[in-house]
C-alpha cells in the first residue's frame, strides 16, 4: 500500500508538472488576471491603474521597479500601516532576503496563502529525482539545514528568512522525521555550531540509511565537510562511548540525540575513524554514506565555485541543483537532475508568479554606464520602455533562445514588475515553459577606472587559473575578491583558500606557478581590463592565499551581521572593509601577476 501511494504521488507529480508546463502561456495570463483582480484596488496599483484590471494597461502604466522604489511602501507597512498599500491580502510576515538595501536587509512581504504555494515547489522536485534515482523511499536525507533567529518590525510583524520560515512550519516539522536523519530539534537549534555537530553526528549514526545529502546551497555543504574535518575525532569518540560531548548544551539537541545515540558503538566508531583518518579526503561522502545516491544543493551561479570541491568529496555521487528561487518568488526547477552541474537550466513554473523578461546585452568594449540599484554600475545594458515601445520586457510566450534577460516578477505578495537583479540565459523550453541558465547577479562587479568585471567573468577567469593548479594536487576551496583602491593605480585582489588533495597538510606553494595563476586570471578578463592594465591604469593583480578556516570566519562574520547560514552566498566581490579585514587576518602568502603585455 505504501509503495502504491508513492507510485501514485510520483505519477501525480509528473502529471502536475506536464500540465503546468504545457499550459505555461495560458497559466501566466490567468496569474496576471487574478493578481490584478485581487490587487488593482491597492494604494500602489491604483496610482497607475485607477482601479482598472486591464492587463495591457498594467503593462503600459505600471513601472518596472527595484527594491529601492518600493521600500517606502514596505517601510510604511513595517511601521504599522495597512498591508493594503501593496496587496489586498493581509501580510502574515516579512521575509528577510540575503540582499541588503543601504546596509539594511530587504524585507519581502509574505502571506499565509503564498507560503503554501512556495512549499509546492518542493513537492514538485521529488518526483523528478525519483525518476532518476531508485530506492529513495527506502532511506532518508542527511540534511544540513539551519534556522536563524527572527526579529520583529515596529508594528510587530515577524521577520524571518524563507528557509527558517519553512523549517519552522508545521508541515516541515511533521514530515522531517520521515525524510531527514537530523531530528527536528537539531535543525531548529539556533546555535549553528551545535546544530551542525548534531546533524553530522546523527547522519553518521544512521549512515546506512542515508540515501541523499542535502543543504540549500553548496557553500553550506562545503562548510559542513570542513567542520567534519575538524571534529571527526570528537564525533567518533561520542559514538564509541555513547556519550554526547558536554559542550552541546542545547536541551532540544541533547534530548533528541540521546534517542539515537543510545549505546556505545565501538565498531561504528572504528569504521568512521578508519575512513576519516585517511590522509586524502577524496570521495569521503561516498565512503561515509555508501548508500547516498545524490547530493542535493544549489551549485549554480556563485555556488559553481564549489563544484570541483564537492565532486572531490563526493567520489562520484552526482551533484543535483534542484531549483532556482528567491525570497521574492520561486522561479523554476531542474527537470534533468543528472545534467552537468555547469550546464543546469531551470524550467520556470508558470503558476508561481507573473514573469517578464527584460532583454539585456552584455556590452563589448564600450560598457554601459547605467547605474545599478545597489550603487554599482552594471555591465549589462538594457533599455526599459513601455509595452507600446520597441524595447521592453517580454513575457513567457516571447522569449528568444540564446538571449540574456533580467527577470522581472509580479507576485501574489505585493511586488509589481520588480527587478530581481538576476541575469539569465534562455537555453530551451519544456513544453511551453522556458528554461533558463542562471548567469549572474547583475550588481556584483569589481570596478576600477572604466573596468567593470562581472561575477560570471571573474568565475570564468578563476576557473581557468584553477585548472593550472589542479594537476599539482591543489584545489581551490573558495575565493573572494575586492578592488584595492587605496593606492594609485588600484588593483584587484583575490583571496584563495586552497586544499592539498592528498593530505590535510598543505605543502609549500610554488611562487612561479602562483604568479602564473595571477597572469591567467588577468589574461582571461576582458579587453577593457587588459587595455587599462597595459596603460598602467590598473596595477598587477594580487593573489592572497589564506589559511584553512579563513572563509569560515568570513561566513561567521556575515552571520553575526544578520545573514542566514542557509542562504549564505560567499560574496565573489567584497565591498565591506570589515569583511576584507577578516580575510586579511588569515593571509599566509601573497603573489602578483608578472604579466605586463596583454594586447600585443
Ligand atoms: P535569497 O532571497 O536570499 O534567498 O537569495 C536569492 C538569490 O539567490 C537569487 O536572486 C539568486 O541570485 C540566488 N540563487 C537562488 N537560487 C539560485 C540558483 N539555483 N542558482 C544560482 N543562484 C541562485
TrEMBL record:
<protein>
    <recommendedName>
        <fullName>Indole-3-acetic acid-amido synthetase GH3.17-like</fullName>
    </recommendedName>
</protein>
<dbReference type="Pfam" id="PF23572">
    <property type="entry name" value="GH3_C"/>
</dbReference>
<feature type="domain" description="GH3 C-terminal">
    <location>
        <begin position="457"/>
        <end position="578"/>
    </location>
</feature>
<keyword id="KW-0436">Ligase</keyword>
<comment type="similarity">
    <text>Belongs to the IAA-amido conjugating enzyme family.</text>
</comment>
<dbReference type="InterPro" id="IPR004993">
    <property type="entry name" value="GH3"/>
</dbReference>
<dbReference type="Pfam" id="PF23571">
    <property type="entry name" value="GH3_M"/>
</dbReference>
<dbReference type="GO" id="GO:0016881">
    <property type="term" value="F:acid-amino acid ligase activity"/>
</dbReference>
<feature type="domain" description="GH3 middle">
    <location>
        <begin position="346"/>
        <end position="441"/>
    </location>
</feature>
<dbReference type="GO" id="GO:0005737">
    <property type="term" value="C:cytoplasm"/>
</dbReference>
<dbReference type="Pfam" id="PF03321">
    <property type="entry name" value="GH3"/>
</dbReference>
<dbReference type="InterPro" id="IPR055377">
    <property type="entry name" value="GH3_M"/>
</dbReference>
<dbReference type="InterPro" id="IPR055378">
    <property type="entry name" value="GH3_C"/>
</dbReference>
Amino acid at each position: 500500500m505504501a509503495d502504491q501511494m508513492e507510485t501514485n504521488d510520483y505519477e501525480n507529480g509528473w502529471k502536475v508538472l506536464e500540465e503546468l508546463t504545457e499550459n505555461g502561456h495560458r497559466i501566466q495570463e490567468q496569474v496576471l488576471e487574478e493578481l490584478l483582480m485581487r490587487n488593482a484596488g491597492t494604494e500602489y496599483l491604483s496610482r497607475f491603474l485607477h482601479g482598472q484590471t486591464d492587463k495591457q494597461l498594467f503593462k503600459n502604466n505600471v513601472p518596472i521597479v527595484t527594491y529601492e522604489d518600493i521600500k517606502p511602501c514596505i517601510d510604511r507597512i513595517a511601521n504599522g500601516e495597512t498591508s493594503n498599500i501593496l496587496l489586498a491580502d493581509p501580510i502574515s510576515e516579512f521575509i528577510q532576503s540575503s540582499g541588503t538595501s543601504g546596509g539594511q536587509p530587504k524585507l519581502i512581504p509574505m502571506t499565509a496563502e503564498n507560503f503554501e504555494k512556495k512549499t509546492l515547489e518542493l513537492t514538485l522536485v521529488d518526483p523528478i529525482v525519483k525518476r532518476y534515482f531508485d530506492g529513495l523511499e527506502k532511506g532518508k536525507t542527511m540534511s544540513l539545514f539551519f534556522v536563524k533567529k527572527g526579529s520583529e518590525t515596529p508594528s510587530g510583524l515577524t521577520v524571518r528568512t524563507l528557509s527558517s520560515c519553512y523549517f519552522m512550519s508545521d508541515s516541515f516539522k511533521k514530515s522531517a522525521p520521515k525524510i531527514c536523519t537530523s531530528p527536528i530539534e537539531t535543525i531548529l537549534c539556533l546555535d549553528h555550531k551545535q546544530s551542525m555537530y548534531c546533524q553530522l553526528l546523527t547522519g553518521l549514526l544512521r549512515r546506512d540509511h542515508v540515501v541523499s545529502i542535502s543543504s540549500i546551497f553548496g557553500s553550506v555543504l562545503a562548510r559542513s565537510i570542513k567542520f567534519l574535518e575538524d571534529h571527526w575525532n570528537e564525533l567518533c569518540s561520542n559514538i564509541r562511548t555513547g556519550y554526547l560531548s558536554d559542550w552541546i548544551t542545547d536541551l532540544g539537541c541533547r534530548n533528541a540525540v540521546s534517542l539515537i545515540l543510545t549505546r556505545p558503538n565501538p565498531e561504528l566508531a572504528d569504521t568512521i575513524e578508519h575512513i576519516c583518518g585517511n590522509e586524502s579526503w577524496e570521495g569521503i561522502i561516498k565512503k561515509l554514506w555508501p548508500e547516498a545516491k545524490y547530493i542535493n544543493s544549489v551549485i549554480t551561479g556563485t555556488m559553481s565555485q564549489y563544484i570541483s570541491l564537492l565532486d572531490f568529496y563526493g567520489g562520484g555521487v552526482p551533484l543535483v541543483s534542484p531549483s532556482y528561487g528567491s525570497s521574492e518568488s520561486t522561479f523554476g526547477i531542474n527537470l534533468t537532475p543528472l545534467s552537468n552541474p555547469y550546464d543546469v537550466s531551470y524550467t520556470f513554473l508558470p503558476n508561481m508568479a507573473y514573469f517578464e523578461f527584460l532583454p539585456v546585452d552584455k556590452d563589448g568594449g564600450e560598457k554601459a554606464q547605467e547605474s545599478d540599484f545597489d550603487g554599482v554600475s552594471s555591465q549589462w545594458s538594457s533599455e526599459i520602455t513601455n509595452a507600446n515601445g520597441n524595447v521592453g520586457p517580454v513575457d513567457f510566450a516571447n522569449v528568444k533562445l540564446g538571449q540574456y534577460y533580467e527577470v522581472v516578477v509580479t507576485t501574489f505578495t505585493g511586488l509589481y514588475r520588480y527587478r530581481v537583479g538576476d541575469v539569465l540565459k534562455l537555453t530551451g523550453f519544456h513544453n511551453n515553459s522556458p528554461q533558463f541558465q542562471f548567469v549572474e547577479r547583475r550588481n556584483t562587479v569589481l570596478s576600477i577606472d572604466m573596468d567593470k568585471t562581472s561575477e560570471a567573468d571573474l568565475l570564468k577567469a578563476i576557473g581557468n587559473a584553477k585548472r593550472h593548479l589542479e594537476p599539482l594536487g591543489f584545489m581551490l576551496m573558495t575565493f573572494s575578491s575586492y578592488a584595492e583602491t587605496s593606492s594609485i593605480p588600484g588593483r584587484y585582489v583575490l583571496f584563495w583558500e586552497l586544499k592539498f588533495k592528498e593530505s590535510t597538510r598543505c605543502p609549500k606553494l610554488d611562487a612561479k606557478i602562483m604568479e602564473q595563476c595571477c597572469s591567467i586570471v588577468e589574461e582571461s578578463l576582458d579587453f577593457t581590463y587588459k587595455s587599462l592594465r597595459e596603460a598602467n591604469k590598473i596595477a598587477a593583480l594580487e593573489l592572497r592565499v589564506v589559511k584553512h578556516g579563513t572563509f569560515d570566519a568570513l561566513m561567521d562574520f556575515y552571520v553575526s551581521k544578520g545573514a542566514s547560514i542557509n542562504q549564505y552566498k560567499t560574496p565573489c566581490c567584497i565591498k565591506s572593509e570589515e569583511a576584507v579585514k577578516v580575510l586579511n587576518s588569515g593571509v599566509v602568502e601573497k603573489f602578483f601577476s608578472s604579466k605586463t603585455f596583454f594586447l600585443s
